[in-house]
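Task: fold both queries, return tokens.
Query 1:
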Amino acid sequence: MVVKDGKNSSKNQVFKCKICLKRFVVKRKDKTQFLLASYIKEKKILSTLAKNNKTSISTIQRALKSIDIAKPAKPENIKEVILLVDATYWGTGFGVVVFKDAISKKFIWWHFVERTELLDDYKLGLKWCLNNGYIIKAIVADGLKGLAKIIKQAPFQICQVHIQRTIQTKLTKKPKSAAGVELLELSKRLTMLSKESFIKELDLWQEKHKEFLNEKSIDDSGRLRYTHRILRSAHYTLKRNIAYLFTYENVENLPKTNNGLESEFAHLKTKLRVHNGLK
């Protein structure tokens, strides 16, 4: 027969067996992982979790905050990887840099930041991968300035969709000049063209609009400058990145975009959006 026998120093209920006289504490089952799964996967809000578990919202918050943030660990049986690398943000003060393997579809490494991404963040991730014995077959990333230069371990593919977005940002969706309209249309076909075809069409565009591109005018400060600087900038973006736009043609199974990682970001944000105001 078991009866209550006071409380211990932690104020937990102590029980005593009248037969063997043994005293013991019944430990409650840890519900933190269950709460986390309900919170994220089932999209249950704090008030719902509190009601279902017959406790207060503050208790649920403390339980969720007590969960340790998972740290990168090398998955078993993965050695050769194609890294999809990128960062995503919540607001302007918090984000995460992520490395995902395009072959196994597993997350390899991640690093939380409270600022915009830096080259040092990617250096840190690459160093971690190499120190853990990964063989990096290739890397796909966006156009972060200087990133291509620090990636010396493997062939580098710049995300073609990122370049398309960059060109559209520079030219807008409705360019005013014929040259701008044609360059935007060419950039939209980037994912459908081979390297040879794209270079040929870009060169033809440049030759066709050479005079327009070289037009100069006097600005407000009295200096003689190129008139169509934004158009020239868009053109230069394509010319400068050609060396990295078609790496996939020479590396087996190498994606030409980072869509495999960006879709994960979208999925994560959709799950968290229900928890508006989360800190």
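Query 1 returned. Query 2:
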Amino acid sequence: MESPVRDEQDDFKDDGRGMPGSQTLTRGLELIAAVAHRPLPLAELAEQVGLTRSTVHRLASALVEHRYLKLNRGSGYSLGPRLLELGYLASRQANLPRIARDHLEQLAAQTLDTVYLGVLDGSRALYLDKIPGSRRVEVSAGVGERLPLRSTGLGKALILDGDEKALRRHYEHEARLDPGYGLTLDVWLDHMRRYAVGGYALDLEENGDHIRCVAAPIRDVTGEICGALSVATAAQYMDDRRIEGLIVEVKATAGAISGELGYSPRVERTRSKVLKGRRGR
């Protein structure tokens, strides 16, 4: 179905919702969004945003002049270098603990359990934030502590994208430091494969007696894992049935934080195809 084409004169009409300049800005932003995933020639770009070619040409020319768009011979308009500069500055301003804090507090209030935020720090999980739960349970890990990857839910979530070689390396490194871990390599790898498919990770009393946790990775604008969050409490408050519900809540919170960092599921689909291609070679 064809999109309705707006007349060029519409750019100079005030529909009561704002000044003409704001309408022009909105339509300029629509052009940028339209070419976000691939270059588009003028005719296709005009059809996609529902404007006349002359209007699109005028708006796109201004965006090219200011480097928000780039005109390429043969392929049409694509994102310009100014957006790369702004994206870099935005990523520098994005602070994971600051962005995540409200989401962590909300999750702690919903679950009544302790909520953690952490990042990968070498071969350990570094805990950046902790929201204590309201149950009469003390989960001992604190902010600034560095804990194992293979036995903590948060640690597993941080390495969820790793291939088998990388996962084996993590397991074997920690086996040298702590040979008393309860899961064999093969069983642990099987769990990690299942977690990777589901987009979550569990600690079923592996890192501490009677403590369980549900974790999920946080992704940045590139689709890479840049952190993880977890909900932890005593095993008596987290039976198998409750774990199923917590997986949904924890993944939703991780997704909301990821969204604020610029992550899009579309980026993940593209990234997954690339990873599958690499692993198939």
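Both queries returned. Flag for query 2: Residues 240-260 form the longest helix (21 residues).
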